[in-house]
Design goal:
The protein has 69 residues and is an all-alpha fold. The chain has helices at residues 12-31, 61-64. The longest helix has 20 residues, at 12-31. The N and C termini lie far apart (62 Å).
């Protein structure tokens, strides 16, 4: 890892403090396990609605659209 000072003239103490913070954050990020994927919630899965046949057209078809029979 290379760090370059683009502006200013930091003192050795300021540079050491900045590098300590950067190294500590890098070590923390490397030590954390990667986030695991949440289990898929079947209730919010839109494909569960497509497993049933579509209702026949008629005056009550709107009420049967989302209710499995």
């Amino acid at each position: 890892m290379t760090i370059k000072v683009l502006r200013g003239n930091p003192t050795p103490e300021e540079l050491a403090a900045a590098l300590t913070v950067v190294r500590a954050r890098a070590a923390t990020a490397a030590a954390e396990p990667p986030p695991t994927a949440r289990p898929h919630d079947a209730w919010s899965d839109p494909s569960r609605l497509a497993t049933h046949r579509l209702p026949h057209p008629g005056p009550t078809a709107w009420g049967r659209t989302y209710w499995p029979t």
